[in-house]
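HUMAN: Please help interpret these tokens:
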Amino acid sequence: MDYKIGLLGRIFVLTLTLFLFAYMILTEAGVFAISLFIILTFVQLILLIRYAESSFNKVRQFLDNIKQNNYSTVYPVKFDGTETDDLHIEFNAILAKLKEDQMEKEANFHYFRTVFQHLSIGLITFEADGSVQILNTAAKRMLNIEKLSHIQEIASINKELHHAIENLRTGGSELIKIAHPDGIMQLSVYAIELVLRDVKFKLVSLQNIQSELEEKEMEAWQNLIRVLTHEIMNSIAPISSLAATISMDINQKLNQQAAVDTEELQDYQMGLSTIEKRSEGLINFVSDFRSLAHIPAPKFSAIKIRDLFDQMDMLLQNQLETQKVNLHKQITPEDLLLFADCSQIEQVLINLTQNAIHALEDAPEKNLYLRAFIDDQGKIIIEVEDSGKGIEEEALSKIFIPFFTTKKRGSGIGLSLSKQIMRRHKGNIQVKSSRNKGTIFKLIFNA
């Protein structure tokens, strides 16, 4: 029976009963008849309320099923065209759609979990209280463990790794060396902080870059050996040739027991002087090489970047005036502080500004910019920019190699030394250059 017709019918019968009940009261019918009609009225009211609540109870049951993720309930459909039938059809359609969405969500979850587990990069996710959510197979293999319940447990494996994981913020990265049964591993640790459904958690990736580092190290050694061989041969070849010539001439004089005149002595003296100068050059070259391998550990202190830039301005004042270079200083915010070794960072800035001034020698507009600011990731950035001729693309990939230089006069260790100092500060140095537009060196300090 249609719900509306059933409801209207029950209301009509209740109304008729009430009308008859009122009529009997007015006609002073007997107590038995009136009592009977009173009972009949209450019964009809209860039946009417139950009938009216029947659809509400179905809706409440339907909502409870959704709340409990129970999509297996099927409401009976008689296909008699009634509103109850239509309601059941809608209920079944909604439950079927929700069930399909749940199955798709579960399939996606299993898919991504499978991908997560089979990635070659180690991944760990943990909440703010340190409880680990997911630990993939690669991370287990790198850490040589079977399970990880709390992130604190990593401290027993490697304290430095645990400290990095706990303290790295979004975008932060660090290189950690750990011992492993298969040998020493160099792990690149990268962290991202996320919020999902008001729950904070951190995603940490671990990548073993030992083989890549060894390959780069071998490449660096080959480049270094190539440069060293070139420089040493350039110095030794003329020394050897000149020494052989002088030795041969002296031996010839000794064999012939010939006298040596003043002019020949002057030639010998000039040759020996040349050998001495080239030997000193070779000694200075080796000394420069040794300086690269003996950079002292930085002594960290708070530095006002404004004071650092003012100091650079004072040191360069004579050169800037002589070369007619305009120095522009920009610091945002004005009271920006840097925690670093003041003397070492000053040395880096001296190297970069000297290179910039050299690049501005033939520039029509001679502008040198010193900038300091905080980027979107909270890192302190110092930039040294010039409006000079720029660096050729081929040289860009080699400028940090020790003893490589594009200058006619230069040791080629300034940029290499600067890069090592920045690495000692857990930072980095980057360069961007365009021909005839200028060069920007960027010092990046991880906050």
About this structure: The mean pLDDT is 78. The first helix runs from residue 3 to 26.
